[in-house]
Design brief:
Two copies of one chain form a homodimer. With about 325 residues, chain A is of the alpha/beta class. Chain A has ten helices and 15 strands. The first copy, chain A, folds into two domains: about 190 residues, Alpha-Beta Complex (Quinone Oxidoreductase, Chain A, domain 1); about 140 residues, Rossmann fold (3-Layer(aba) Sandwich). Helices cover about 30% and strands about 25% of the residues of chain A. The model of chain A has no long low-confidence stretch (mean pLDDT about 95). The interface between A and B is medium-sized, with 34 and 35 residues.
Amino acid sequence: MKAIGFKQSLPITEENSFIEFEAEKPDPKAYDLLVSVKANSVNPVDFKIRQMAATGTVLDSPKIIGWDAAGVVEAVGDKVTSFKVGDEVYYAGDLTRSGSNAEYQLVDERIVGLKPQSLSMAAAAAIPLTGLTAYEALFDRIRIDPEKDKDKSVLILAGAGGVGSIAIQLAKKLTGLTVIATASRPDSQQWCTDMGADFVVNHYDLKAELDKIGHSQVDYIMDFVDINAYWETVAEIIKPQGHIVSITGSDEPLNLSLLKSKSVSFSWELMYTRSMFTTDDIDRQHFILNHMAELLDEGTLKTTLTTTLDGFTVENLKKAHQMQESGKTIGKTVIQF
Amino acid sequence: MKAIGFKQSLPITEENSFIEFEAEKPDPKAYDLLVSVKANSVNPVDFKIRQMAATGTVLDSPKIIGWDAAGVVEAVGDKVTSFKVGDEVYYAGDLTRSGSNAEYQLVDERIVGLKPQSLSMAAAAAIPLTGLTAYEALFDRIRIDPEKDKDKSVLILAGAGGVGSIAIQLAKKLTGLTVIATASRPDSQQWCTDMGADFVVNHYDLKAELDKIGHSQVDYIMDFVDINAYWETVAEIIKPQGHIVSITGSDEPLNLSLLKSKSVSFSWELMYTRSMFTTDDIDRQHFILNHMAELLDEGTLKTTLTTTLDGFTVENLKKAHQMQESGKTIGKTVIQF
């Protein structure tokens, strides 16, 4: 099968930052589905792994990354019960296994959902990684109770990015939360409004912007950009008994004691945790993806796809990485096979 | 009225570490109850505040501390609706107001519960601060769902202390969690078993002790002793998607990034947060104390009182502080007026 990978961590502009090669078509065992990949979405995790998986070394065989896809089930392992050959599926996958930058990929059925019927392969591929991240952050980390928490508010840092775009929608449609998103450019601000945000604020001088809209403090903060850069502001604007969830963070330690008198909670969210540790509730991702497919099909949610690159080529993959590295993309970028 | 306080932060062994004096009987306004204090419990927060509230200075008038009491309502403010004169009540109170080391004290009715009828004033006074802390930690910070989380496990660090003793009971009786408590001396280990712990482990070489009982990792950790000292072990033994709640912590920052790949959550619990910030849900403490009173009266919970000092005297208050400062007390120490 055709695959695209890398043997060295190189700047994306270099010739060999990605190379095309022939790989063996894998064989599904146990819970595995063999999926014929039809579309593949690129996220920040892709360029981060490309930049660090082979620094100062040359791998023996190319590494296949990419963990966000839609496709068709071509074969199944002997323990598979939820899917059959021919099913259209979508999934983020498992960081510890070979990725979706290939014509075929193995993925555990417990982290796969049925693709939303009303969506194209490209529009569906835009959803899994970011959707799982936002859904888990809201309901498995903060444990939001849509009824009990309906009068509360959430601030989404980087509302126009991939995760932010779907987080705005999920918070708005599945909870009664007042949704405030940060965005700084006119086009990204408009996008946040289109996604359903009640308020859009500029992240420069965030405190003053929040004062201006009458939400000086918020109950929940979802950080999708850089928690360390915002820490002191976050500690100031979070309400007593509030909850912060972050997918970022650096090696620099966070001064947690700023949150103590307010009894604040802090969660990390990594949507790969369940598959990485094969947790008892790993099939929660099967449930979440199916739930989001229903919401997409009934029109409650809309895809966050903004850019489709046509053709599974080295050139398109490089272009998608370059866009992610810029940090300025709105919504999601997908490569259509 | 008679009161006991201090004008200087002094070692407890010094003559003037506590002094008796005459104070004006306060007047209840708005939501306040004027309570005739009948019993008063001492917690670590007492000696911490005594040690730091007047260091290197002499206050103009003595500071009255003590925030854990039972007594009788003697008068009410004009907005009071839940209590009447003559009601027997118990409460922890509000750190920003004058404490219960006095014959009379004002306390907001929204953070007061009806005293368990079956308990003496002393046995009731042992409950509020620790009970609110443990209850809020389980249900408001971790947000344990007794049904969904019934197969999970909780490790309680310092199970024989005041908060640990009631936390063991609440976790055991109100959730299906497997309860593991730490204690190092034979008497404190026996006490944890009496409180209902499924397992008691020594905190020296905690990891090996947990391996021995077949719970190498746990879903939840409640820290009531010193989170900084345990941090690396805590990061190792917490399960993916686990939740840590702590009432301790020092100025030394915690390395949160150890928890990232496991998507772990961390909460501070301070039972004074609600009263300190007059949160919208401040009356949750009224509900919790009434709920615990029911559980105590029906025998589901038992008081954690172990030592009763008879008489509201400087000598007894000094003795109670000395016991708390030792860090070796089991259960709770109460002064009966």
